[in-house]
Structures are given as structure tokens and as C-alpha cells.
Design a protein that fits this description.
It is a single chain. The protein is mainly beta. The chain has one domain: Rieske [2Fe-2S] iron-sulphur domain (Rieske Iron-sulfur Protein), CATH 2.102.10. Helix content is 0%, strand content 37%. The chain is built from no helices and ten strands. The strands form three sheets. The protein has a four-stranded antiparallel β-sheet, with no helix packed on it. A hairpin with a 6-residue loop joins strand 5 and strand 6. It starts with 6 loop residues before the first strand and ends with a strand. The structure holds FE2/S2 (inorganic) cluster (FES). This is (2Fe-2S)-binding protein. GO terms for molecular function: 2 iron, 2 sulfur cluster binding; metal ion binding. Keywords: 2Fe-2S, Iron, Iron-sulfur, Metal-binding.
Length: 116
């Protein structure tokens, strides 16, 4: 898959600490598209492909709701896999030990960009 150009996904203010995430689609030079999402955790923005490692469905049943009730983990709405928000590592559930595919993300000048 060819790398995507840097794309603006949202203003920094759209990502509150452990709040609702921002969904986006990036288009690669090949025309292939990747669905992703970004969240803020411990002050940093992290982005991942929006595909569970158990079955490749989108994690959020309700758009943008990626955190579990404790706000410590990202949760898959299908079977409840829990992922570390900073590394994407699955720490509990049917795909324990696997990791979400991280996307390169950059926050500058009050904007969040992803490069895929
Ligand atoms: S599809 Fe995500 S835990 Fe099963």
C-alpha cells in the first residue's frame, strides 16, 4: 500500500482527553482508502486503523465512541476487546496480544494531521 499524503483530520480542540474520537478516511496514492480514528490520551493524539484485530470490523458502534467506561482502554463494540490507547496493544479479549494498526499522526499549529 502506498503512503498517503499528509491529511488534515481535525482541529486539536476536537479531541478532548479520553473523549469522543474523530473518524476519518485517508486515500492512498493507489486509490485505496483506509478508515481510521484519532483519540487523545494522556495529552497525546493517537491514530489507528478502525479495524478490530479479532474480526476486521470498526470498533465504534456509536460513531467516535472508542473508550470503555473506565476511559483507560479503547474497546471494540463487537466482542469487547480492550486495547491500550497509546500502543494499540490488545490487553484483553479474543485478540489479546495483537495490536491495532497505528497510523502516523502529527499535531501542530492547533491542527491534527495523519500521514497513514
Ligand atoms: S470483532 Fe472486535 S472483539 Fe471481536
Amino acid at each position: 500500500m502506498a503512503a498517503a499524503a499528509t491529511e488534515l483530520i481535525c482541529p486539536s480542540g476536537a479531541l478532548e482527553e479520553r473523549g469522543v474520537g474523530v473518524r476519518f478516511v485517508i486515500e492512498h496514492a493507489s486509490g485505496e482508502k483506509t478508515k481510521g480514528f484519532a483519540v487523545r490520551f494522556q495529552g497525546q493524539v493517537y491514530a489507528f486503523r478502525n479495524a478490530c484485530r479479532h474480526v476486521p470490523v470498526e470498533l465504534d458502534l456509536v460513531d467516535g465512541h472508542f473508550f470503555d467506561p473506565s476511559r483507560e482502554f479503547l474497546v471494540c463494540s463487537m466482542h469487547g476487546a480492550l486495547y491500550a490507547p497509546d500502543t494499540g496493544l490488545c490487553v484483553a479479549g479474543p485478540c489479546k496480544g495483537a495490536s491495532l494498526h497505528a497510523l502516523a499522526v502529527e499535531e501542530r499549529d492547533g491542527q491534527v494531521y495523519v500521514t497513514g
